[in-house]
Amino acid sequence: MAKVLVSDSLSKEGLELLKNSKGIEVEYKPGLNEEDLAKALAGVEGLVIRSGSKVTAKVIEAADKLKVVGRAGIGVDNVDVKAASRRGIIVMNTPTGNAVTTAEHALALLFSVARKVPLASSLMKEGKWEKKALEGRELSGKTLGVIGLGNIGRIVADRARGLRMNVVGYDPFMTAERASELGIELLSLDELFSRSDAITVHTPLTAETKGLVNDTTIAKMKKGVLLVNAARGGIYDEAALVRGLDSGQIGGVGLDVFPEEPPGLTDIVKHPKAVVTPHLGASTEEAQLRVAVEIAQQVVSYLTTGEISNSVNVPSVPREMAPVLGPYLGLARGLGQFLSQVEAVRPKTIEIEFAGEAATLPSASIVNSALAGLLAASFDVPVNTVNAPMVAKDGGIEVREQKTTHKKVEFSTLITLTVVAADGKRASVSGTLASDRTARLVRWNNYEMEAHLDGSVLVVKNQDKPGVIGTIGTILGAAGINVSSMQMGLDKTTKEAAALWALDSALPASVLEQVRGAKDVTRAAVVSIARPE
Questions:
Q1: CA within 20 to 30 Å of 427's CA: 274, 285, 363, 446, which one?
Q2: Rounded to 5 degrees, what are φ and ψ at 232?
Q3: What is the pLDDT of residues 355-406, one digit of tens each?
């Protein structure tokens, strides 16, 4: 049973999905502080959270079995993703579950600011009828600037076009052609600032976006511009907003997020021209149900089948691609495990080449599998597909990837893994997929062969002389070791042969010593190709 801890409030539908999943044991303990959360993670493999739990480096360090953190929502600001990655822990979110809800709230803020709805309501409740003081603005025909054209930003743009607004946008990762298809004119930031009557931001909080709207950028905007932020606190400089509101450069501000939450009675919260809400972007019944169910499904799928969805720190394998990529992940991992056990080369550089069908596939997850297989035996920390790239980088190892589609290869699909030592020494293996999609080793340095990459394999090098195979077979037979297959290769330059014996059971150390002592055997080792957990 895989133990899952839910440390924030979660909809009953999400909890029931977890509790009713075969092989999953659930503990529900919402509201834990850092110290209590660290203690509660003993023996836990999956952690499900919302925004309340703080998964710090201290918490992660205390987790002895944790494999996955699932965030019901898009933001992972409350998770130390870097610390999780170093420990090989997958961090997942639900990037689309609250997209519509957040987009709608951003537009609600925009309407509220434009038509002064909250102020009008409060005055009415005081018995005041202040029509002249509450004159607002129409949005139809105005230009809305959308910074960040991801899931939420695109929905905002779509709804704004329905309001007959002109939509301009900024997103460094979107082409002008794609933006045009969405009915958005793509601009530079400075152009967006100068042309927009209203601006809304939908980006994560990063070093590049922190303080994106500040005194300097506000000065570039139209006088009376309306600003909305339902993304992340800190993207707008709050002190600059207050100055802009006081001077009239900014006509109104709508904020749902703050650098510190709750913010207290700050100057921007108290400002009469600011409409503020307590981080309600994702707070609808529909969204909370959706993200709870989605994250529960994702965590269960990973813990029971290994399927990775919406991970922020490891390449996800889309459901429709899993049947295609799955065999390649096993092949890449097996090549790495084989090479690490038969070659005493400490890599300075790792090269991974894809040819044939392999060159047409998304390669990030395959590369990570190869690195995990290769590096697991060389480091004193557990290495898996999550932290393998970071382990390589921390170890000063350069990883190079190459796709070959223009030259003919002997196999319809081929992956070649090469390690290069600091002194230039090289060792490589190549593998393919058989017709049944099982992994095959087809080349080891200068040896060409076709051998299964699975289970326990006796690897023997010997002088190319008669009788060696018979001698080894006799030794294995006398020990009761069954051989399911045997493949040979010959290095024509050294006249040395290599044989891979696929064994049905573990080989005792005493029997391995007998093989090593056989006439004309120059080297013998047992390689274990373990399947991913």
A1: 363
A2: -145, 135
A3: 999 999 989 989 999 998 998 877 656 788 888 888 888 788 999 999 987 6
Is residue 510 within 8 Å of 307, Cβ to Cβ?
Answer: no
Percent of the chain at pLDDT > 70 equals: 97
Tokens 């023996």 belong to which residue?
43
Judge whether residue 492 has pLDDT over 90: no
431: phi then psi, degrees, rounded to nearest 5: -145, 160
Alpha-carbon distances of 359 from 162, 325, 354, 408, 443, rounded to whole Å: 42, 12, 5, 12, 18
Catalytic residue among 50, 279, 290, 452: 279
Query: Could you read off the pLDDT of 431-461 as tens digits, one per residue?
Result: 999 999 999 999 999 999 988 888 899 999 9
Residues 229-275 pLDDT 10s = 999 999 999 999 999 999 999 999 999 999 999 999 999 999 999 99
The dihedrals phi and psi of 465, each to the nearest 5 degrees, come to: -130, 155
Query: Tokens 């601006």 sit at which residue?
Result: 199
Owner of token pair 């001698």: 471
438 Cβ contact list (under 8 Å, min separation 6): 327, 452, 454
Is residue 185 annotated as a catalytic residue, yes or no? no
49 or 532: which carries more pLDDT confidence?
49
Residue 422 tokens read as: 């600091």
Residue 349 DSSP class: E
Q: Which of 13, 138, 208, 261 is catalytic?
A: 261
Residue range 15-38: mean pLDDT, rounded: 96
Catalytic residue among 105, 154, 202, 232: 232
Let me know if 452 is a catalytic residue.
no
406 classed as catalytic? no
Report the alpha-carbon distance of residue 27 to residue 5 in Å, rounded.
5
Please give the Cα distance from 217 to 140 (Å, whole number): 25
